[in-house]
Every structure is written in structure tokens, then in C-alpha cells.
Amino acid sequence: MSKVNDHYYIVSDLLKKMGSQSILDLAKIEQAMATGQDENKHTLKLKNVVEMLEEYLPGLDSEKALRLLGIFIVSQSGISREQREELFELSTLSSDQKKTLLNLEYLSVKTEKCEEEEVGKTRGFFARLRGRGYVV
Amino acid sequence: MLWYVSKMSLRFVPSYVRIFQVCHAVKCHLNKPFLFFLPDAFPGWMVLVLDGRATKVMSSSMGMYELMEHRITLAEDINKDRAPFRDMGVAYFIDPTESNVDKIIADFSGKKKKYGDDVFIFTLSACPDKILEKVKACRSLLKRIKVFNEFNCDFLAKESRIFDLGMKSCFRQLFLEPDPHGVEAEIAKKLVTLCATLKEYPIIRYQEDSKRSKAIATLVSQKLNEFVGNSPDWWYHGMYDNTRGRSTLLLIDRSEDPLSPFMHEFTYQAMAHDLLNFEGNKISIETDKGSKDVLLNMDDKVWLEYKMKHVAEVVDNLTDKLKEFAKNQGVESNGSNQTFEELVSLSLILFSIYIYLISCYLDTFKE
Questions:
Q1: Which residues of chain B have pLDDT under 50?
Q2: Domain B165-260 class in CATH
Q3: Are the C-beta atoms of B124 and B196 separated by less than 8 Å?
Q4: Mean pLDDT over the full length of chain B
Q5: Fewer CB within 10 Å, N- or C-terminus of chain B?
């Protein structure tokens, strides 16, 4: 029972933090970018996504901004150089954190792209894996 | 004489290890030396000497209390100055590296030996021949060795279905170094000890376009076959019975899914680790009675029940539980349907209320 009590404290602390850091709003954007759809299952245009980011980035602490931009870059499989500079400018990222995002290249993520495209739907993890494994 | 002891046979293995449960399997495996090797060979108390790596492996699933039950009085770090205990036996759990073996040899060379005449050495992974030669060359140590066993457990059991190789820097090395062969070999070696502990002889599959996965897959396959060839007594799931086939080892690197680490997840465990300050799995919380530290691990049943659930669900469930408890407290005299555990925790809470009241009285008394 004392365990339940402990967890009650932990959860209420968690809820307080979630409220104060507006995690719910953040997660909405994250979900939208990752799936390419908004809550009502409408396909998102790149323009909408950029607008959302421009609205949210300025007030965000750097760790959360890093996550948002990371998701943006990965889900778009690369963004244009001008756009990147623009978004970096808006955010509070340190130079190390900017480098972190560019280093995604090592994970074979494209970080730079010239032409504009619509937000693509990222394929499911297991769907991509199917038929591609090799047996030793 | 060096000799390998292998008393473990099929009938000793509890049935629950059959389910893929890393923690259980590791616990059984870690208990093995104490249950099967040590009692027959040596009746007295002994000292346990560990290196850093072995300490981590050990403490991931065994506490000092359990060690005491196995007649271990003291656990010491091999790298520190240790006091001599000439009337006690000694069990070494070490990574088979040269520096570790040198330290063991140092314990038994010279006029004054550090420990008694019973020495047990367990190595976390396969022991290279060079190291074995070194041990053989030291006569005063050799004649005291009762058991020398490749123990094959070089990973940390994190949760019932999660293990950790304890190689934090390997991510960087794997992806940045042009030829990370050393790291790959290390990973493969540890994965083989995992298979050995879990009694799995898996079919190995890997991600086609990842050269790292391919390299590790090849190495694991090679080392595992070597291990199986060298251990005639070892068996694996799916060897004798057809109820469960061989398992599959699927090797995938982070390039397959770079997105997930960036996302906020709403399960209790993920959210807690994102937003609260953890030290390992310890967290300090603010209660009415001040702050205290809570360990969130395998022993915490509430944590186990809720950690994979959505936070909102956890809140609902916890509130229900507390309400139910409050109701139960109201009908305390009708205690027939209360379990013993609930009664104990109830009495603990009553006790803390008592303490609180007494302290209040004392305060007013002082005033």
C-alpha cells in the first residue's frame, strides 16, 4: 500500500510537470509530423508543419526544440538549407545541439534536401523490415 | 590441475526459465556457482572478489543478502587493497583480462598468501588461452584452484525482457569509426554469453543494408558455434522437445528507426524518465512528510504493473486503488477478506500515524 502511495506522489508530480511544460501540445505536433496527418486524419502540407514549428519553437527550451527539429528532419528525410538556418535561428539550440542534428547523417538520415515535397507518410517499422532480413 | 565442473543437468532447471525471462534466467545462472559448485567443494565461509564489470552484472540481479545466504561474508573490489583472510576461501568473479589475472596471481605469490587454500575462479566470458597459460604458470595458485569455470554471463539484466550489454560508448564507435571491428567483436562476445545463459541457440537474422548488423551477425554465429562445439553439456531450448522451436536473434541498428528516440511517449515509464530526475532507477519524491528516495525496479509490483500503461490510465487506476483502500480501512473490524499483506501495510500506516501524533504531542509539550 505504501508503494501505491509513492506512485501516487510520482504520478501527481509527473502530471504537474506535464502541465507546466505543455507536453500535450508538444506531443500533438510530434505525432502530426511523424505520421504526416493531423488529429482529424487530414494530410499535412509542408507549409502547415513549418507554420506550426515557427509558432512553437521560440518559447521552447533547447532539449524539446532539439526533439521537434529532429522529428522534422527525419520525417521529411531532409530539409533545405535555408529552412534549416531559419528554424535554427528561431530555436535556442546550442551549437553542439545543431551539430547533433546534422550528425543524423551518420544514421543514414538525409538532413539536406533542395526541392520541396509534401510530408510523406513514414512506413511502419515492421513493414519496412519485411522481406529484408537475411539469415546467417 | 585445472578442471571444468559442470553439474548442471536438465532436471535442475526450473520450468519458468522456459519463458524468455532474462532476469529469472540470469538469477538462476548467477546462483549456479553458489548452489552447485561451492557447497560440495568447500564447506566454510568465503570472500567474494569482483572486478567492476562483474559487480555490475552481479548487482543487476543479486543483492548482498542473497550472497550471505550462500556463505559469502564479504564482497570486495579486486582493484582495491584487500585485507587478508587466510582462514577463508575465495571466489573470484572477473572479466578474463590480463590485469585481473595478474592481481589474482599477486594474491597467491609471495610468502604471505591472502586467502586460504580454496580458490574458485569464474570468468564472465570465454577465457582466452593466453590467460589460461598465465594461470597455469603460477604453481602456488594452480594447486589451490578448486574450480575454474567459464561462467558466461557478461551482460546486465535490466528488466524481465530487457538486457543491456553495458557498452555506452559503442554507439559512437559503431557509427563513426571506419572500421569498428573491435567493438563488433566485443558485442558478439557478449551476445554469445547471453545465448549461453538463456539456453538459446538462435537463428540469426539481420538488417540487410546495415554493415554493422551483418558483421555482428557473422561474428555471433561463428562464436556461438565455437561455444557449442566446446561445451558438450550445454543444451538449448528446442534441442530435445518440439513444443518450442529455436528462437530468432534479430539484429537491427538505430538507422532503421531514427525517429522514435525523439518522440514523447505517454507510457508511465517513458514519461517519468523524460520529465523526472532519475539517478539510475532511483527517484526522490516529495511527500507530506518530506522528501524520500524510491527505487523503481523489478521488486516494485506497482511499478511493474503500471510502467507500460498510459499515464492517464495510471492516474485512474491509482485513484481507484486509494479509494478502495480507504473503504477497506472503514470496515477494518471485518478483516476476514483482507490479505495478510494488506493488514501489514495497514498497520504500518497506523504506526506512522501514531508516530506523527506523538511528535505533535511532544511539540505542544515543549511549547
A1: 1-20, 332-338, 340, 343, 347, 350-358, 360-362, 364-367
A2: alpha beta
A3: no
A4: 78
A5: C
- Its pTM stands at 0.74
| CA B130 to chain centroid | 28
In chain B, which residues have their Cβ closer than 8 Å to the Cβ of A134? 205-206, 208, 214, 217
Is CATH 1.10.10.10 the classification given to domain A2-113? no
Closest Cα in chain A to B301: A3
- Going by C-alpha positions, the residue among B153, B162, B127 that lies closest to residue B56 is B153
Q: Which CATH class is domain B1-164?
A: alpha beta
Q: Which residue of A has its CA nearest to B177?
A: A106
Mark yes or no for CB contact B276/A27 under 8 Å: no
Answer yes or no: are the C-beta atoms of B220 and B192 closer than 8 Å. Answer: yes
Q: What is the pLDDT of residues B92-113, one digit of tens each?
A: 999 999 999 999 988 888 777 8
How do the domains of chain B map onto residue ranges?
1-164, 165-260, 268-366
Residue A119, pLDDT > 80, answer: no
User: Can you say how many angstroms the Cα of residue B142 is from the centroid of all Cα atoms in its chain?
Assistant: 30
The C-alpha torsion from B124 through B129 and B131 to B133, rounded to 10°, is: 140
Architecture of domain B268-366: Alpha-Beta Complex (3.90)
Q: Please state, in angstroms and rounded to a whole number, the distance separating the CA atoms of residues B126 and B120.
A: 16
- Are the folds of B1-164 and B268-366 the same? no
Q: Is B19 on the interface with A (CB under 8 A)?
A: no
Instruction: Give pLDDT tens digits for A30-48.
Output: 888 888 877 777 788 888 8
Counting Cα atoms < 13 Å in the Cβ hemisphere of B311 gives 23
The pLDDT tens digits of the residues spanning A82-112 come to 888 888 888 888 889 888 888 888 888 888 8
* Beta-strand relationship, B162-164 and B156-159: antiparallel
